[in-house]
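Example 3.
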Amino acid sequence: MTTLFANARLIDPQEGTDKPGWLTTKNGRITGMGYDTPPKAETTIDCRGKCLAPGIVDIGVKVCEPGERHKESFRTAGLAAAAGGVTTMVTRPDTLPVIDSPETLEFATRRAAAVSPVRIAPMAALTKGRQGREMVEVGFLKDAGAVAFSDCDHVVTDNKVFARCLTYARSLGALVMCHPQDPTLSAGAAATAGKFSTLRGLPAASPMAERIGLERDLALVEMTRARYHADNLSSAVSLPALERAKKAGLDVTAGVNIHHLTLNELDVGDYKTFFKLKPPLRSEDDRSAMVQALASGLIDIISSMHTPQDEESKRLPFEEAASGAVALETLLPAAMRLYHSGDVDLPTLFRAMTLNPADRLGLPQGRLKKGAPADLVLFDPDAPFILDRADLQSKSKNTPFDGARMQGRVLATYVAGDRVFAHSA
Amino acid sequence: MTFRQKHLLGIEQLAPDEITALLDLADKYVDLNRQDHKHSDVLAGRTQINMFFENSTRTQASFEIAGKRLGADVMSMAMQASSIKKGETLIDTALTLNAMHPDLLVVRHPHSGAVDLLAQKVNCAVLNAGDGRHEHPTQALLDALTIRRAKGRLHRLTIAICGDIAHSRVARSNLILLGKMENRVRLIGPPTLMPSQIAEFGVEVYDDMREGLENADVVMMLRLQRERMDGGFIPSEREYYHRYGLDEEKLSFAKPDAIVMHPGPMNRGVEIDGTLADDINRSVIQEQVEMGVAVRMAAMDLLAQNLDAARAQKHAGIMV
């Protein structure tokens, strides 16, 4: 049965276009699109001139299952994703236990298939237990469906171990993803070193810690020729190193999370722990540098870095409070801030949230193209609302955007042509 | 009412006229404290709870005496030894105490911002007795009162703060207060003990002590807080004393009538020469302790008055 999305404003990240058109789907796939008179179809969905884009492929979602289901489960994360226009959650392995064996990976895949309305593409740890000592069974895990290998915020500090992981991963074509950081320089830090951290008396680290970590990683990538993704970059000082590596032809991509594009350290205000992130929020100069890098294509991917935390772990003095924020549902409206500010156009934003992550992970979704999965998001980029964290689908409500004025709302989300979310006005 | 605060969380929130009002009242309490009969009833019937999550002898004693002189019922709790060890969170501890209807809560905590957090959860007046490396407002106020009494004014003075600025909440509160009152503030110390971008606070930063002390009216020494250090900020105590320890020779660069201050407890021979600390012509270290009691009496008196006003408003609201 063919479904026609008529009267849509198509955001095509591949072509870089944003113009009125139509799109048809059948049996879970996109069957056609165009900008002329639409064909006849059994079902027609009138998009009323709103934006239709590929569903978001979100790299680095923490689901908290197994281990901490009181914070988030595959079901609630899936509902949150659907509500946020995220049709593929690329899940992080930093759960309890760590996803570092084919067995634990299969558990996650099975649970997700049973209860999540959106797709998942699981990542696995790079080293056993994320301890940085022994590499995981990269081959078995890849066969079991791991799309990338990452120890997340744990840095493999032993260069020999990390070099071997990269070399071995390269032989299998596996993607290694890291959050670059020099953990000795940033140890104990809860804020970015600067006037604000000094005023608030918070232990802080220089953003140079990120650049040192990145330079180390890139040197080893040059040595091993591995496929590498530097995720969660946040500082201007990291960008020249990244640019050099890309110019040198290394197989390197980079990501930034939505909070480092839309918030800065001053948002922490009077020790608001919902703004405690890892890496910590940076200066406004860093934020605008990241936005520029995104617009220029130096930064390839935007992610939510969805990290649920329960109330107890946030109701603590800032230094003791847990880091991270839920963001599956706020990723798209927050990204619209960059569109409304005139910094980044919609096709560029969506390229960083759909096509680029999908390409990097070798996934067929994330594009408006005949034959691609019919994973779509219909949204109104202008619809204003005030975010109330109680309305979130996530089990945890730790969003820095609570009470914030947002502009841009998801109207409907489709996975394989099936509607998994519809906004009730 | 000039003093408009509900809590005393930091100097950052105070306006210059509020600082002046508090110091004026503290001056009166200095007089009271010097009499044989040092008792007042302005806090009679009030309950004051001192919660110290970090070791303190001097500050805790000062707050305790201040409360008792004003007639409050004072209870001091050493929090390291109690529920915190049983895993209770700060907020639960606060709520438990809040249910006992205290009027004044004096809190010291090792983490910056912890006192702010606590103040959001209770309905009494909260006084910050030091939080992490953030603020220690009553220390800055007692220092200000000491300077004002010694120098006859609290503006257009050159004040050098010397030592471990990075780990010091005393330094932060002082530089904010002295800046608000329009003084020239100099910070002296090794760069490893200077906080990030400190020069942006409108202060002058020196790593040479003699240059920094040139023509200073006030020399404020800080304790070298060894217990706060991760290690490796300075090569050795003796090199630190050689370069940054205050002695007669270095002090000679300051004005001849410059006063020497120290928040205590002192490390004699590490940051300050013992003889100099005891020199009654230069050192006002004992006066600082005396002013501490008076300033804390004034702060609690003012906050209790504001608490009354707030509660009266609340009752009026319910009546309507």
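Residues 285-319 of chain B form the longest helix (35 residues). Chain B has a mean pLDDT of 92.
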